[in-house]
Give the backbone structure.
Amino acid sequence: MIQYDGTHQVFKLDTPHTSYVFGLADGRYPGHIYYGKRLGDIDLAYLLRTDERPWPPSVFSREKVSFFDFYPMEYPFEGTGDCRECCINIRTEEGQEGLELTYLSHRIYAGKKELEGLPATWSRGSAHNLPAADRSSSGDGRLEEIADCSTLELTLQDEVTGLRVILSYTAFEEADAITRSVRVENGGVRSVYLTKVLSACLHVEQEGLEVLTLPGSWSRERMMQRQKLGYGSFVTESIRGISSHQDHPFMALISENCTQTTGDIYAMNFVYSGNFIAKAMRDQFDQVRVVMGIHPDRFCWKLEPSAAFQAPEVVLVYSDGGLGKMTRSFHRLYRDHLIRGYWKDRERPILINNWEATYFDFNTEKLLEIARESAKAGIEMLVVDDGWFGYRDNDDSSLGDWQVNENKLPGGFGYLAEEVNKLGMKLGIWVEPEMISEDSDLYREHPDWALQLNNRGPGQCRAQYVLDLSRKEVRDTVYDRLKAVLSSANIEYVKWDMNRPLSDVGNTILPPDRQGEIAHRYMLAVYEMQERLLQDFPGLLLENCASGGGRFDPGMLYYSPQIWCSDDTDAMERLAIQEGTQLLYPLSSIGAHVSDCPNHMTGRSVPLETRGTVALAGTFGYELDITRLSEEDKCQISEQIELYKKYNSLIREGDYYRLESWQHNHVCDGYMIVSEDRSEALLTYVQVLAKTNQKSRRLQLQGLNPEAFYDIDGKTCQGAVLMYAGLLIPPMSGDFQAKLIPIRQIQKFKPV
Ligand code: DGJ
């Protein structure tokens, strides 16, 4: 719900457990007042801090410049006094920087609009939860708006340039989350250059705050990091053209006592997959400001008169119940209001991917051998990974030449799909549409199609260049090739990979004053291509990937309901990677596979049962040569598949509770998934290293109904006992041991 109190000029956005409040100073400047626990409808205008004393003692009230440098502006602007990190800056044709935004108007409405060309959360009942193909068949106009959110659009203006800035705030009821985005329109008569347009800003007045981020690396994505926020700034950012392995478009301010179940959290997550910045700063007055948006470095967008720029969305979540409560808000929002399409709420097919089984060395016969054994075990889909096209036998060639290599796959995917379908399985394929190899026909024909700086040529990474998808003819050509392959056979799944960051971001097509637009135009092009794919193949299951989890972000989730989490498939390494990923993203979106042993990356041998248990907390599949496994292992795979079938709806839809963290305690990992009605739960416990002479571990369960009785390991226990007193898990023999403990309600509490 969103309200405006015209008397006091205060806006208030409520979700079931939170309130977000800001007011207008002097009827002109929107200033932040409060974000936190839900409040009643009281007047909070007194908290706006408009009467604070000035710093030069010689004057009695703050003059404009010192006011701007102090005031918690909702959308701070640069160049006219505020010397903290601001959200927006412009350069005029005269080369001058700076602007001043004041209130012009606002409107409040039910539901939420689409963000043109960008991924974004959507309102229930609105059209944009459907890929466009489904929309036209149901007709946009006929779709009832049964909105479960409301939106405030606040329009600000810069009187000198005629620029209008529309801040959109949406309050999502069930998910307890707020989203923000920004649109800039040039209502003036001259062009301006947007040199910075961030999407959101938040001010928090609380002492002792820490910053939580998710830095990492290739094969070590999203490691949780907390550090104290002192004076100055803390930044997490990417200028790699992708959200990246190294940093994650997420930042949260957390109280220093914060745990899984206690403490305050103010979290921001960016619905975008390219360059970003998130910056928290504590200023001279102990005020903390956090901003998030497209990275201003290497960004400059020319806005001609009447033109508009849409900046992506930021999701805000406040939790007064620690990290777990924050996680469940993000999961709910992303499951119900971001992921779309046919596979959104459906059980995903259990796949086997040939990458770690064969790498580039495969042919139809080898793939069919894998498929036959997989079908016997109950696996449902074969995915042909890298190496099926051009003459690619290693990673040196053929990207861009999206024609099947008939030497490896005679009869193409048509024959393979028929044979695989006869086994009762689906067929899926890997592609990397954003790239071009120097050794490819496409590059020989169009060397200028690679992103490059004049007179420098493109730079290689993994022996490949990045295609300049900002050019329409480039993305159309690649898309048409991809479409032809997908139309040639019954291909029901695509793994869309992206194996290197952007560099040399330039071309000879755009004029000099538009070169700073290329990185964002590139991202818009990727989104456009994926949207086309979903339109043309509505039942297709799309899985995004970027050298593992280099582009695992809410932007990509809008297009693909699942994303490959990491190239590191070692189950023990995955514990930390999955913990960081699950902090924000629902388990149904996390690509997790059982791979070979010893693991190809770490050389570690983990029991098959444990590998299966860890992969169950994701989309589940296999990435090994099943034809080389023992009969005993294949039987175990069948048992794992039964488990997946039994628990997948709970894992996909249930609430997630983290009990133990291997990356922090160095002993064990543990988490629970609990059904919405709390009648069923699944507890996963992993003992990483065995130790001698250890006591049993006492786990305090979470999320159960304290009054209900549950069956757990053949014993009957009350929810309150399991949650407050706990459960003893005896030490297991051997390293890397896992236990799955189902918990089922057997009796409801009946008051006497
Ligand atoms: C990187 C992906 O993460 C892997 O799973 C695999 O598909 C390779 N690329 C293929 O080149």
Remarks:
- Residues 355, 385-386, 430, 497, 499, 545, 547-548, 564, 567 surround DGJ (CB under 6 Å).
- Residues 136-144 have pLDDT under 50 and may be disordered.
